[in-house]
Design brief:
14 helices; 3 domains; globular; alpha/beta; about 450 residues; Ubiquitin-like (UB roll)
């Protein structure tokens, strides 16, 4: 492996709490009913193409992408459509969804459900991208950006590297780590598929040092088989947010994404571990994205676990299977503690971007008294994007969106490092997210004129 690398600006090191790192992946039983939201990507929700009373099969298309930034949605089970209604998702908003009562597990025709590993990649570049699009693959690290858009490189650009985000820098989460340890061959074939899709000669798997077992295992596999030529494991310093797209590119290649630009400007295409595995299944097994691995965890939880779950499974069933909601739970978070979102209900459906369900106890989630900014500069030192969080917070509160734009608020990756280090306990990220959302609206409106 190459020497340990990292990004140069900012970053923090929160308590890791990888409580489920030694827990093998368990296949969670199919529930009696799934609730499949039509909006499971960063973009427009899918348009429903089934009706109440319809019989559907596992893997069948039930929602078609509406627009360029959108993703198809498939049934994760076989059964009957009970209703098409709204459900409160992890964001706290009610969204349209398809409710399906489960009847057995009959798969749609053409999907390979066997455990046979297929290495020979027969699809062309164009066919791979089309398969990724039709099978609804999105970024499964949480961002849920449609993956086919990333792979559709403009004609005037060239991909030098495929970079696999295996950092899993969020505390508590271990789903990617377990996938690498238990399904390494399928994952590495997925990397080769990505290299072919974007015509990149090299792939770098960026993985933090605290997952050294997975790093060594992958490195040994790669070096023992010429099939994996062009793939390298890059060990990274354990530092948050090492998995940020721009930070990962800087750490692994030394290249820097310009402000306001996309990774392809540096010749890089970045894809998450789980998305890479889903691409293998889509291309080699013709399987749509209908399940994922979810880390269910928390210091007071009886049995932290990594569960392979059908999309649409209510989260409270996963919590019950891991011992039930601990009595001292103060906060339930969809995702990790740094970038995840608190939820007001526990029966929200698992979606493509659900990487973890975290129960924070009273001690760790205890509200802190907010004080006044003391101009200590810790938030500036922690910011991996080189921004001034204290200033962006202030002008966002004042609704001075000219200043938020001129001070590059759109470059914020919302990692929360600033808030983590603030001695005054100011909710910097909340205000910055507000300012960023409003600034983005202004920029989009201006560009449409």
């Amino acid at each position: 492996m190459n020497p340990i690398k990292t990004f140069p600006k900012g970053g923090v090191h929160p308590e890791e709490n990888k409580l489920s790192s030694d827990r093998p992946i368990e296949r969670f039983p199919i529930p009696k009913q799934v609730i499949i939201p039509l909006g499971q990507c960063l973009g427009a929700p899918a348009e429903v193409i089934v009706n109440k009373g319809d019989t559907v099969k596992t893997g069948q298309l039930i929602g078609t992408a509406k627009g360029f930034i959108s993703a198809n949605v498939h049934s994760s089970v076989s059964g009957k459509v009970a209703k098409i209604d709204e459900v409160m998702d992890h964001t706290g908003y009610r969204k349209p969804a398809v409710f399906i009562d489960v009847e057995g597990d009959e798969w749609a025709e053409g999907i390979d459900t066997s455990d046979t590993i297929i290495r020979d990649i027969t699809l062309s570049r164009e066919e791979i991208i089309e398969r990724v699009k039709t099978h609804g693959i999105v970024g499964m690290g949480g961002a849920t950006f449609p993956t086919y858009v990333k792979l559709s490189i403009p004609k005037d650009k060239k991909a030098d590297f495929v970079i696999i985000n295996a950092a899993e820098c969020e505390p508590y989460l271990t789903c990617d780590n377990r996938l690498l340890l238990e399904r390494a061959e399928q994952f590495l074939i997925g990397v080769k598929i990505l290299m072919k899709a974007v015509d990149a000669p090299k792939a770098l798997i960026g993985i933090e040092k605290n997952k050294i077992d997975a790093a060594r295992y992958l490195d040994k596999m790669i070096k023992s088989d010429s099939y994996y030529n062009g793939i390298e494991v890059q060990l990274l310093k354990t530092k948050y947010p090492q998995g940020g797209e721009k930070q990962l590119i800087k750490a692994t290649t030394g290249r820097e994404v310009p402000s306001g630009k996309l990774p392809i400007e540096t010749g890089c295409v970045v894809v998450n571990v789980a998305s890479t595995y889903a691409i293998y299944e889509a291309v080699q097994k013709n399987k749509p994205l209908i399940s994922r691995i979810v880390t269910v965890t928390g210091k007071s939880l009886k049995r932290p676990a990594n569960l392979e779950v059908r999309i649409g499974t209510p989260a409270n069933l996963l919590i019950e299977a891991c011992g039930g909601l601990p009595e001292d739970t103060a906060n339930v978070i969809n995702g990790g503690p740094m970038m995840g979102k608190s939820v007001s209900v526990t029966d929200f459906p698992v979606i493509k971007g659900t990487s973890g369900i975290l129960m924070l106890n009273v001690k760790d989630a205890q509200p802190r008294t907010v004080g006044n900014c003391i101009r200590c500069g810790k938030c500036i030192q922690a910011c991996p994007m080189g921004l001034e969080p204290y200033y962006l917070c202030r002008v966002s509160r004042q609704k001075d969106f000219e200043s938020t734009e001129s001070h590059n608020i759109m470059d914020c990756i919302e990692c929360g490092s600033c808030e983590f280090t603030c001695p005054a306990n100011i909710p910097l990220l909340d205000y910055i997210r507000f300012g960023k959302a409003k600034t983005g609206q202004i920029i989009r409106s201006r560009n449409q004129k």
